[in-house]
What we know:
Helices cover 0% and strands 50% of the residues. It contains no helices and twelve strands. It has strands at residues 3-12, 20-23, 32-39, 47-52, 59-66, 71-76, 79-82, 97-104, 112-119, 129-136, 145-149, 159-167. The strands form two sheets. Strands 1-12-3-8-9-10-5-6 form an eight-stranded antiparallel β-sheet, with no helix packed on it. Strands 2-11-4-7 form a four-stranded antiparallel β-sheet, with no helix packed on it. Strand 8 (97-104) and strand 9 form a beta hairpin. It is globular and about 45 Å long.
Amino acid sequence: MANTYVKIASVTVGSGGAATIDFTNIPSTYDDLVLKTSTRMESGSSEIRLRFNGSGVNYSTRFLQGNGSSASSGTAGTIWIYINEDNYATYTADTFASTEIYIPNYAGNTNKSISSNSVVENNATAAYSQLTAGLWSDTSAINQVTLHHVSGDYNQYSTATLYGIKKS
């Protein structure tokens, strides 16, 4: 069966930046969701947390990341989209990190899983890539998705687009 992507909403960060990117009133008419981002941060932590329906509890994550010379892995009690050194001021000017987050069966009555892959663009020796698997142990249908930058802001022109997927 062919998958059909339908753009639900898109956010572009304006002047002054933003600590969160938020999608609300997500319809339950699709099978899966995909969130694609292009982000840049100049300061603060590079940790981004994914939240559903405004909830900050019952999350878990496993991740694997590399920087071109070493690899590491770990776990967290949040859905942690950790883009190491997410294009800080020391990284190549005017470049943005790219992330794709896949959320299957978001409207179903089972716990919600996610998978994501992220990469940081940098014209230097170190450039980070990460794979993440996450779980929200909650059976509620997802109607809100928030990308929360923990200790800084998304720069102007950072973008995020949410797609619904129909399997038909």
